[in-house]
Automatic annotation (TrEMBL):
GO terms for molecular function: acyltransferase activity. InterPro entries: Acyl_CoA_acyltransferase (IPR016181), GNAT_dom (IPR000182), NatB_acetyltransferase_subunit (IPR051646). Keywords: Acyltransferase, Transferase. It comes from the Eukaryota. Residues 45-194 form the N-acetyltransferase domain. The keyword Transferase applies. Belongs to the acetyltransferase family. ARD1 subfamily. Transmembrane segments: none annotated. The keyword Cell membrane does not apply. It comes from Solanum stoloniferum. This is N-acetyltransferase domain-containing protein. It holds the Pfam family Acetyltransf_1.
């Protein structure tokens, strides 16, 4: 890349073979630097707060059958009540790469950050984007809201997601029976934050629970 050859083509010379008598011309340094900077910009990802306008463009990210989807009023409520927990990742061209939606809730030692949804479009996976979004929500929960832990729910059958969360230091705290539609069980996974010095929040329960037992008020 960046090298051009002046002189007749092989077809003009009649027979293929190495060019002789012609020296390569290399693009000036400033042009190569400009090309490199353009490539770097193309690889940049912007992560910012989710906006109302994003609601019109994020449908393609939700096409994964394992991604939980909600009605518009649900997303609007999160934007209004927990704007610091609702972020979108965008590619340089403006395409939505993924998003994370969450909240903070509970009382006492149950005060925690919660990941309601995190998803990345198929074409942008394997770029550590989900990890970046999760780290952002954890940082806000830990440093700003002083939560004890972050939790999330995942389908018991969603092995790839479970493995990803485990790599991010989440543990299965408890199984929630028939948490999802279709009566599929959910796993409540947790990660202790700095305020939970003794890591009490991630001591696994020995029994399964039902959805009506999930209270943080």
């Amino acid at each position: 890349p960046g090298v051009c050859y002046f002189g007749p083509s092989c077809s003009q010379r009649g027979i293929g073979g190495p060019l002789t008598g012609y020296r390569p011309y290399r693009l000036p340094e400033e042009f190569r630097r400009e090309r490199k900077s353009e490539e770097e910009r193309e690889s940049m990802t912007t992560i910012r707060r989710f906006s109302c306008n994003d609601l019109l463009h994020f449908a393609s990210v939700n096409l994964d059958h394992l991604t939980e989807t909600f009605n518009m009023s649900f997303y609007m409520t999160y934007m209004a009540r927990w704007p610091d927990y609702f972020h979108v990742a965008k590619a340089p061209g403006g395409h939505i790469m993924g998003y994370i939606m969450g909240k903070v809730e509970g009382q006492g030692e149950s005060w925690h950050g919660h990941v309601t949804a995190v998803t990345v479009a198929p074409e942008y996976r394997r770029q550590q984007l989900a990890k970046k979004l999760m780290n952002l929500l954890e940082e806000i929960s830990d440093k700003i809201d002083k939560a004890y832990f972050v939790d999330l729910f995942v389908r018991a059958s969603n092995t790839p997601a479970i493995k990803m969360y485990e790599k991010l230091d989440y543990i299965v705290y408890r199984r929630v029976l028939r948490y999802y539609s279709g009566e599929e069980d959910g796993l409540d996974m947790r990660k202790a934050l700095s305020r939970d010095v003794e890591k009490k929040s991630i001591i696994p329960l020995k029994r399964s629970v039902t959805p009506d037992e999930l209270e943080y008020d």
